[in-house]
Amino acid sequence: MKIAVTFENEQIFQHFGRTEQFKIYHVEDGKVVSSEVIDTNGKGHGALAGFLSDVGADVLICGGIGGGAQNALAEADIQLYGGVSGQCDEAVQSFLAGRLNFNPDVKCGHHDQHHHDEEHRCGEHGCGKHS
After folding, report:
1. How many whole angstroms separate alpha carbon 121 and alpha carbon 54?
2. Domains and CATH numbers, the chain
3. Model pTM?
4. 54-78 pLDDT, tens per residue?
5. Mean pLDDT over residues 109-130, rounded?
6. Which of 63, 96, 97, 121 is the most buried (most CB within 10 A)?
7. How far is CA 111 from CA 63, 69, 76, 99, in A?
């Protein structure tokens, strides 16, 4: 199994469509056997589901993610665990242990807007900026 995590400075990057790197974990018998950080090479939003499919990802752990990307991931048979924040390695270990705290209804519906508030994170809710 391959688990992809949106990646920035060892943390889960909070806007799937703007992800510049993924950390890919290779899992065998329920344990991480290796991992690597890969660049998206400028691919964004619509192309990222295909990018993950091309690298053989089975699972995606991320912060915020829009409905179109969710549909593309579903069509590519990639399981989505969104609304996650924190350290990438810890999230993967929690996932493998069946304890990952994620939001099955995660949405990020403001992709056409620029974030002027740098503290805003798409995966967090209650800020009033999500649809």
Report:
1. 27
2. 2-96 (3.30.420.130)
3. 0.81
4. 999 999 999 999 999 999 999 999 9
5. 42
6. 63
7. 14, 11, 21, 30
